[in-house]
Structure formats: C-alpha cells, structure tokens
Design brief:
heterodimer, A: 111 residues, mainly beta, five-stranded antiparallel beta sheet, 58% strand, B: 113 residues, seven-stranded mixed beta sheet, four-stranded antiparallel beta sheet
C-alpha cells in the first residue's frame, strides 16, 4: 500500500533538472510533498488535491494525475540546498484520512 | 511561535522499560499526528487526533503502544514494555484542517538496548 517513488536515488550537478515520481496502487484524493534533510524533520513543500492540478513555487513544481494515481515533482536548475530525501504523502479516496508516506527519493546536488 | 516541541530529543533505555514521548503541538492546530521513521519501514503514521480525540490508530504496531491527548497542547506516546525493534525516530506533527501542511517536530531518537 505504500506509494512507490522513483528513482530511489539521484545525483545532480548544480543547475541540472530532476523529476521524482510517486505512484500509488489506490485512488488518491491528495498528494503532499516533503523534503527531509539528514538528521532533521520533514519540511512541507506543497499539496496537490484531486483535480489534476499542477503547483509550483520558485523552481520546484509538481503535478497530480489522478487517473494514473501518480504525482511527479519537478526540480529545475537545482541548487545545493535541494539535497535531501523527498517523500510523497498520499491520502486515499476511501476510508478515514489515512496518510501514507512513499518510499522516498534521495537527491544529492553537487557543486 | 516555537513550532512543534518534542521531548526528550534522545532516549536510550533497556528492553522491558517503559518509555514516554511527549509532544506540544502548535497553538491553534486541531490535528496532531505521531509518526515513526526507520530505515527499513520509512515514515509510518501511527495515530492521529482531531480536537484531542483519536481518529485513526490503525498504524499503532501493537498493544505495547498507546497514545493520549489530554488537552489541546499536549500529547504522549507510550511504549510499555519497550523492545529493541522499537528503536526509531518518532516524530510528532500538527496541522490546521487536514489538507493543510503538517508541521513536524524535531523528533525523538529512541534506542532500546
């Protein structure tokens, strides 16, 4: 039931772009994205609600394809500060509010 | 605001001992969540409260785990008796309405010997 993220890990040079995918086996109501730096707590990036919207701020954006039960996080012109582990968190359409985090993607940006 | 406060930040205990983790959510937040993070299982939702009432505790691993929220500004997660496999980082998070961002506390790193 845990959403699967891909890739598991990625290494970039500053200025390069990356895409992180999150796939669920269940119909989704919403997808949340968080970034966690080593030894720290997860920090919220954005929420996408059912409706296939796309959001973004600065050079980080995301899309939500509810038909495919997938979300993608786009990082453009990556900066050193983007390094960390990215998690998607999903809420299903049915049942109680069941918040499930994905498997995580480790991203490292090199100078 | 000081953010979500958790205590202790680190806890080392021996198998069989009782462990109590504490959390103070952000003032005015209606929702409180307890998570556990391990390398093997990632981030798992254990339980969450709305207005001090437990809504979903299906993530609580077994009867050794219990959580309470006696008032809007305090919650505890208790493990009794503790086992080595309970070693993990435990996060508390709070939020306003559900579909708003969750603010995580710094976490409690628990080691059970």
């Amino acid at each position: 039931q845990q959403p699967v993220q891909s890739p598991q890990a990625v290494i970039l040079r500053e200025g390069e772009d990356a895409v992180i995918n999150c796939s669920s086996s269940k119909a989704l109501y919403s997808v949340h994205w968080y970034r966690q730096k080593h030894g720290e707590a997860p920090v919220f990036l954005m929420i996408l609600l059912k409706g296939g919207e796309q959001k973004g701020h600065d050079k980080i954006s995301a899309s939500f394809n509810e038909k495919k039960q997938q979300s993608s996080l786009y990082l453009t012109a990556s900066q050193l500060s983007y390094s960390g582990t990215y998690f998607c968190g999903t809420v299903g359409l049915s049942g109680t509010y069941k918040y499930i985090f994905g498997t995580g993607t480790r991203l490292k940006v090199l100078a | 605001d000081a953010g979500v406060i958790q205590s202790p930040r680190h806890e080392v205990t021996e198998m069989g001992q009782e462990v109590t983790l504490r959390c103070k959510p952000i003032s005015g937040h209606d929702y409180l969540f307890w998570y556990r993070q391990t390398m093997m299982r990632g981030l798992e939702l254990l339980i969450y409260f709305n207005n001090n009432v437990p809504i979903d505790d299906s993530g609580m691993p077994e009867d050794r785990f219990s959580a309470k929220m006696p008032n809007a500004s305090f919650s505890t997660l208790k493990i009794q008796p503790s086992e080595p496999r309970d070693s993990a980082v435990y996060f508390c998070a709070s939020s306003l309405p559900l579909e708003i961002e969750q603010f995580f506390g710094p976490g409690t790193r628990l080691t059970v010997l």
